[in-house]
């Protein structure tokens, strides 16, 4: 009898040791990652021990934020039962009470915000995170407060929740992490439709959860000018959709500091000389083909209107406008845009033609003068100009060697930009445009379609190769990449669901670049982790879209094509 | 909730310009409700004053088609009662009068059906992702107060994988792999319609479910029946062989049993087009209503068989098209019904295309539909609204209106919806919404 029951309890023990079928759901996946099979609880008295002398206030806040997420995420593991089957092992697990945060010997203590805006290539985002399985203190070390912030973000993705207990089932965990590329961005157009500041802050939060470090803010365009510029208040007065639909100077500073505290650099763009129709509302004399019809002759979308770039007065105005805005921002980057110039607009503009004729310049020459004026203004302020690809591929301009080029029309164009030896940021419409596939928004066109159809799924974006068609010598020119939302058909109502979790795809392509251990990124491996980050975003108040039926989210791989 | 043809939604509304009383008249309280809806759309606000710039206003109004619907799939992903009610509100603002509730499917079974509680208990996504009897009553009442009939659908015999979690004996190819051999999407699993026990089970299930819904209409579905699932199901083959029935005969017996159960409750069955076009089910009563979904091209074929029909064409009215492929490990996959169906595309739908005068009488109306493989409460409003309002106008006001004239009014409805708490998507830059016509193609 006794032997039988001993055997019985042994069988019980074996059946309880369940190997985890879920994956450790980190996004972006760390560059080096070791996990185990031991359950570990988070103690109800868990605390962060910040071993940094005179910690900057944003680091202290980051720790508070991390505490908040630990307490409130309450994310059930994405398996059938949401973690109920983990409980028998979790009940018997050790408890983790402490995570110590420390900087490496000799590290300089600066605020996260200061670290976040350092020039590309000089930032330190790396960290080491170690979580033992025996309940002894976990440790996070980094060379900068920004690195500590990145590590805290990862730490916050480790914990699941069931019935009052937060836990992981994969201790011990050892992570050594650093980004493969320095620029991981997200671009939002706040001109076609306006987004209240609160929407931008929520978006910055979501970006920080996946280690996106650049907010490319396409703040103005032909349809509206919401940016309040102290030296040119008339631009927003006549150009914003309403007095409430503006970004005041205080708003901008608040957004910049909110971003900085989350390790995000704000790269502002005032797109010029195209995409400026709205400036005509306050300065009609600066704009060629202002609101002209048919708009399709003069612009890529309505309304038509472009800066009279051959005019010295307009050139001065633009340079001063850009200079006055750029000097209020801590980033070392500023974009002057330069996409989709419509030449008809200038051909038919009497004033532009007069100016070109009288100086004997071609349009290209005039654009060169115009661009050098705005760029030298930026450079004099210590900023690096950023432009869209046409400025180097379609026009013959003298740009500073440091100029950063955003490749957007097609992923095919990256090689051509590299051939001209410019550093680039991948923004290709065929992979990274989040607005593609929502049909034609232009009116009276019932059979029209999205110009960049089809919709770019997360998995299509995930197959993007940052180094395609580049020689090894050109690899260093790739700063990174970003996904982008053009807002002709978007606004606060659908912001979260059209952006997340898809915009996390590029964050992994440019942070992780490969699976830990070196294998290429793989959509089958990635999907369960992307579901996980999506569900965690929802817990944290971001309305990320559902990627599949929940049935699929709870059964990794069961809804794959050949499953 | 009267018979479709017996409802009276007509009203007349007169708003004089001299400040004397406006008058709303109708033959029924439902008509008054429709008129109130119109009245509430007349008013703008500026600086504390509510006004209309177009008095006097004389409206005589009635719907061209008696069925103007919206279909929501609450099985692929769950929608709390509050989200459903908010959709019902939005529907009522554009006079949609039918909520087609595709309540269960292969991925989940959130409906608690008396006598069959096990299915929800095992098949709902969680114990809180359910619709209790009182939730259903709540939704029905909420809809009814807004002049909306709730037509539930329990899709059978396909789309029933989840039933295997509670009643494995009734389901063929449950979660069989590779799923693509056995189903249109994962998981695979279909009711063993040739088995008498399953025929009875289904009839009882449908009967019990139908008792929860006072509508005179109930859908038993019948789309996307995968034959390989049955070819490889030993039980089904054994029954077919031993009884000598064909697939169609067995399916007809199965269907008749559920439909008889509905008719006993005084309900008219609704089915998807395959029942009529692909499977030639012989036991459909001539009162059966057919929903035409695969393509607008299939409408004439259904009408030729003499069935009343509801337009639900994927090439015009499917709100989920264009969201990319959702099946995993398929980076170059696309939405099967790409491209995205814009409001304008839906608006140009030809209601009586390819139909004779007589066949046109069979058209009850139509609806927009949202299949929710990639939709949840987090994006439901912007993916549905205001696009679903374009079929609302098509089937109330009739075709022949042009997209140029309609767009400013659709913008208006979208902004009003937004103000009322429904997150209707922005159709265009605000610059365009404020300047009617200026963002048209040839403007």
TrEMBL record, chain A:
EC identifiers of the protein: 3.2.1.52
* Domain named Glycoside hydrolase family 20 catalytic: residues: 181-513
Is Signal there in the keyword field? yes
Catalyzed chemical reaction(s): Hydrolysis of terminal non-reducing N-acetyl-D-hexosamine residues in N-acetyl-beta-D-hexosaminides
Q: Which residues form the signal peptide?
A: 1-25
UniProtKB keywords: Glycoprotein, Glycosidase, Hydrolase, Signal
Database matches in CDD domains: GH20_HexA_HexB-like
The chain positions of domain Beta-hexosaminidase eukaryotic type N-terminal read 26-158
Listed Pfam families: Glyco_hydro_20 (PF00728), Glycohydro_20b2 (PF14845)
**What cellular component terms from Gene Ontology apply here?**
membrane
Query: Gene3D superfamilies annotated for this entry?
Result: Chitobiase/beta-hexosaminidase domain 2-like (3.30.379.10), Glycosidases (3.20.20.80)
Output the GO biological process annotations, alphabetical, semicolon-separated. Answer: carbohydrate metabolic process; glycosaminoglycan metabolic process
Query: Where are the catalytic residues?
Result: 340 (proton donor)
- Similarity comment: Belongs to the glycosyl hydrolase 20 family.
Q: What is this protein called?
A: Beta-hexosaminidase
Automatic annotation (TrEMBL), chain B:
Q: What is this protein called?
A: beta-N-acetylhexosaminidase
* Pfam families in the record: Glyco_hydro_20, Glycohydro_20b2
Q: Does the keyword Metal-binding apply?
A: no
One GO term under biological process is: glycosaminoglycan metabolic process
Q: What keywords appear on the UniProt entry?
A: Glycoprotein, Glycosidase, Hydrolase, Signal
For this protein, the Enzyme Commission number is 3.2.1.52
Which segments constitute the Glycoside hydrolase family 20 catalytic domain?
A: 65-398
Active site (record annotation): 224 (proton donor)
Example GO CC term: the record gives: membrane
Report the family membership.
Belongs to the glycosyl hydrolase 20 family.
InterPro entries named in the record = Beta_hexosaminidase_sua/sub, GH, Glyco_hydro_20_cat, Hex-like_dom2, HEX_eukaryotic_N
Task: Please provide, alphabetically and separated by semicolons, the GO molecular function terms listed in this UniProt record.
Answer: beta-N-acetylhexosaminidase activity
Q: Does the keyword Hydrolase apply?
A: yes
Instruction: Name the reaction it catalyses.
Output: Hydrolysis of terminal non-reducing N-acetyl-D-hexosamine residues in N-acetyl-beta-D-hexosaminides
Domain named Beta-hexosaminidase eukaryotic type N-terminal is located at: 6-42
Organism classification: Eukaryota, Fungi, Dikarya, Basidiomycota, Agaricomycotina
């Amino acid at each position: 009898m006794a032997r039988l029951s001993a055997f019985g309890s042994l069988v019980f023990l074996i059946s309880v040791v369940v190997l985890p079928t879920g994956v450790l759901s980190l996004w972006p996946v760390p560059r080096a990652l070791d996990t185990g099979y031991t359950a570990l609880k988070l103690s109800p008295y868990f605390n962060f021990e910040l071993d940094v002398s005179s910690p900057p206030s944003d680091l202290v806040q980051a720790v508070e934020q991390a505490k908040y997420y630990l307490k409130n995420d309450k994310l059930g593991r994405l398996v059938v039962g949401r973690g109920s089957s983990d409980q028998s092992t979790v009940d018997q697990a050790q408890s983790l009470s402490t995570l110590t945060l420390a900087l490496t010997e000799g590290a300089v203590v600066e605020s996260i915000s200061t670290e976040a805006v350092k020039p590309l290539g000089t930032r330190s985002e790396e960290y080491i995170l170690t979580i033992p399985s025996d309940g002894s203190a976990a440790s996070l070390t980094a060379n900068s407060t920004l690195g500590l912030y990145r590590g805290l973000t990862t730490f916050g993705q480790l914990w699941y929740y069931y019935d009052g207990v937060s836990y992981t089932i994969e201790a011990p965990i050892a992570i050594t992490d650093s980004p493969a590329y320095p620029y991981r961005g997200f671009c939002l157009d706040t001109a076609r439709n306006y987004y209240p500041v609160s929407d931008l802050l929520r978006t910055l939060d979501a970006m920080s959860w996946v280690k996106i470090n650049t907010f490319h803010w396409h703040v103005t365009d032909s349809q509206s000018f919401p940016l309040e510029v102290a030296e040119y208040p008339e631009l927003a007065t006549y150009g914003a959709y309403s007095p409430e639909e503006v970004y005041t100077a205080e708003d901008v500073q608040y957004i910049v500091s909110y971003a900085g505290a989350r390790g995000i650099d704000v790269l502002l763009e005032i797109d010029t000389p195209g995409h400026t129709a709205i400036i005509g509302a306050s300065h009609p004399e600066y704009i060629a083909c202002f609101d002209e019809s048919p708009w399709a002759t003069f612009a890529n979308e309505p309304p038509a209107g472009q800066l009279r770039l051959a005019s010295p007065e307009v050139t001065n105005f633009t340079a001063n406008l850009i200079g006055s805005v750029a000097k209020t921002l801590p980033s070392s980057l500023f974009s002057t845009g330069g996409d989709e110039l419509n030449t008809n607009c200038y051909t038919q503009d009497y004033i532009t033609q007069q100016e070109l004729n009288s100086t004997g310049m071609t349009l290209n020459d005039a654009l060169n003068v115009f661009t050098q004026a705005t760029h030298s203004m930026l450079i004099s302020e210590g900023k690096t100009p950023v432009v869209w690809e046409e400025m180097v591929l379609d026009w013959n301009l003298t740009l500073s060697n440091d100029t950063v080029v955003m490749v957007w029309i097609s992923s095919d164009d990256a090689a051509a930009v590299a051939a001209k030896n410019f550093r680039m940021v991948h923004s290709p419409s065929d992979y990274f445009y989040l607005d593609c596939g929502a049909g034609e928004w232009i009116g009276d066109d019932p059979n029209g379609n999205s110009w960049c159809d089809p919709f770019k799924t997360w998995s299509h974006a995930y197959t993007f190769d940052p180094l395609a068609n580049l020689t090894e010598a050109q690899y260093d020119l790739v700063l990174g990449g970003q996904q982008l939302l053009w807002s002709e058909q978007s606004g606060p109502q659908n912001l979260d669901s059209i952006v997340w979790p898809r915009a996390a795809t590029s964050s992994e392509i440019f942070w992780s670049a490969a699976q830990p251990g070196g294998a290429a990124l793989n959509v089958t491996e990635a999907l369960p982790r992307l579901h996980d980050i999506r569900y965690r975003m929802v817990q944290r108040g971001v309305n990320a879209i559902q990627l599949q039926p929940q049935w699929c989210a709870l059964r990794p791989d069961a809804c794959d094509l050949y499953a | 909730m009267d018979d479709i043809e017996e409802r009276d939604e007509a009203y007349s509304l007169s708003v004089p310009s001299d400040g004397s009383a406006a008058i709303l008249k109708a033959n029924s309280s439902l008509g008054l409700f429709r008129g109130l809806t119109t009245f509430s759309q007349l008013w703008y606000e500026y600086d504390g004053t509510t006004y209309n710039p177009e008095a006097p206003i004389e409206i005589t109004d009635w719907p061209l088609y008696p069925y103007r619907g919206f279909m929501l799939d609450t099985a692929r992903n769950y929608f709390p009662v509050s989200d459903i009610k908010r959709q019902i509100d939005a529907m009522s603002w554009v006079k949609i009068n039918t909520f087609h509730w595709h309540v269960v499917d292969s991925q989940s079974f959130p409906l608690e059906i008396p006598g069959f509680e096990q299915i929800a208990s095992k098949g709902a996504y969680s114990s809180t992702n359910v619709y209790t009897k009182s939730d259903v009553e709540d939704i029905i009442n909420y809809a009814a107060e807004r002049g909306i009939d709730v037509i539930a659908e329990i899709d059978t015999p396909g789309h029933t994988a989840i039933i295997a979690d509670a009643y494995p004996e009734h389901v063929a190819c449950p979660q069989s792999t590779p799923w693509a051999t056995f189903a249109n999407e994962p998981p695979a699993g279909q009711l063993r319609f040739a088995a008498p026990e399953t025929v009875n089970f289904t009839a009882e299930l449908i009967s019990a479910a139908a008792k929860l819904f006072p509508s005179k209409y109930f859908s038993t579905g019948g789309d996307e029946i995968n034959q390989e699932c049955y070819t490889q199901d030993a039980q089904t083959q054994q029954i077919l062989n031993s009884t000598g029935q064909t697939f169609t005969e067995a399916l007809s017996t199965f269907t008749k049993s559920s439909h008889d159960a509905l008719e006993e409750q005084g309900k008219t069955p609704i089915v998807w087009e395959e029942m009529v076009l692909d499977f030639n089910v012989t036991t459909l009563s001539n009162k059966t209503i057919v929903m035409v979904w695969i393509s607008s091209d299939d409408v004439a074929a259904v009408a030729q068989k003499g069935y009343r029909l509801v337009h639900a064409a994927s090439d015009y009215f499917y709100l989920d098209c264009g969201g990319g492929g959702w099946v995993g490990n398929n980076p170059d996959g696309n939405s099967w019904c790409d491209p995205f169906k814009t409001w304008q595309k839906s608006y140009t739908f030809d209601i009586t295309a390819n139909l004779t005068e007589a066949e046109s009488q069979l058209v009850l109306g139509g609806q927009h539909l949202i299949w929710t493989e990639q939709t949840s409460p987090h994006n439901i409003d912007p993916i549905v609204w205001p696009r679903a309002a374009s079929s609302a106008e098509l089937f109330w006001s009739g075709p022949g209106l042009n997209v140029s004239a309609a767009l400013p009014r659709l913008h208006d409805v979208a902004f009003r919806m937004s103000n009322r708490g429904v997150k209707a998507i922005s159709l265009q830059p605000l610059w365009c919404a404020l300047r009617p016509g200026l963002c048209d193609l040839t403007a």
